[in-house]
Amino acid sequence: MRLFINILFTSSLIILCTIIVSVFSDNFVDALSSESTPRDKSLQIKSCQEWTKKVRDFNVSKGDGAKKVTVLMYHRVIDDADIGDELLNDKDLLKSTIIRKSQFEKQMNWLKEKNYETLTGREFQLFMQGKIAVPEKSVLLTFDDGFQDNFTEVYPILKKYNFRALNFIITGLLAPKTQIYDPAAFQYLSASEIRESCDVFEFQSHSNNFHKKNEKGTAFLIAKQKKEIIDDVHKSLVHLDNLNLSFAYPYGEYDEETIDAIKQLGIEMAFTIEYKDAKPGMNMYKIPRKGVYPEDTLEDFKWKINSDEG
């Protein structure tokens, strides 16, 4: 009788363990996977971002170089075939933070054909400080939020043209593992996607969990206390191996206390969404950017970067 009870108990335990493993297997895999994004540790990208510290010699004298540089702001790039109703607004137009892949490809191809340089963050900073001259045909490409389509759609195009771009990521929204890409969803980069694309993207902070507004519609970077801002942005810098050259204000909203907070964290420049060109001598914590929108034609794009070339 005792033997029967032991066998029954052992069998029940095995069945129960099998059920638990079956139900929670994904969690176990995620916990053990090196791809997972730890919530309090770095993304381990410092070594693959070493190229961002190098400054090229453009062989341009200060008198012949650019007098201003356009900083372009993008968010999402979606393949034309994947554009569905869920990506449209209530007027059946593409949402303002999305552009079609064909549109983006034409823009990048035009820049390449016209011999434009895409600056790194450090090169742009030194230009703004009057320390180096850059070619007249120079732009700074930036992407906000860290959406997964930046890896699936944007990265291959930039790599093909040997272009570089800043990618301001919301570190608190990073995917714990690489997801099956769904263009209709709001999916964010995973740690492995970030590491795989860090030869093209220069990853910087867009806050950790402060890309939000309060019940009055005020951005957290204005509504929250200075200490809370410092704590949040510091968390994002932990993820980023303290890569703190630059910062993009969520919604483009900030005040003097916000600037003081990010200065305390060693951040050297910050980007707004004020629509104009960047010129040397400007406040390095109020750098303007020009958004690229779904309704922009190639001619509109040329106008944004002050080109009169066909």
Automatic annotation (TrEMBL):
InterPro entries: Glyco_hydro/deAcase_b/a-brl, NODB_dom, Polysacch_Deacetylase. GO terms for molecular function: hydrolase activity, acting on carbon-nitrogen (but not peptide) bonds; hydrolase activity, acting on glycosyl bonds. Gene3D superfamilies: Glycoside hydrolase/deacetylase. One of its GO terms (biological process) is xylan catabolic process. PROSITE patterns: NODB. Keywords: Carbohydrate metabolism, Glycosidase, Hydrolase, Polysaccharide degradation, Signal, Xylan degradation. It holds the Pfam family Polysacc_deac_1. The keyword Ribonucleoprotein does not apply. Residues 137-310 form the NodB homology domain. It comes from the Bacteria. It is found in: Secreted. One of its GO terms (cellular component) is extracellular region. PANTHER family: POLY-BETA-1,6-N-ACETYL-D-GLUCOSAMINE N-DEACETYLASE, PTHR34216. This is Xylanase.
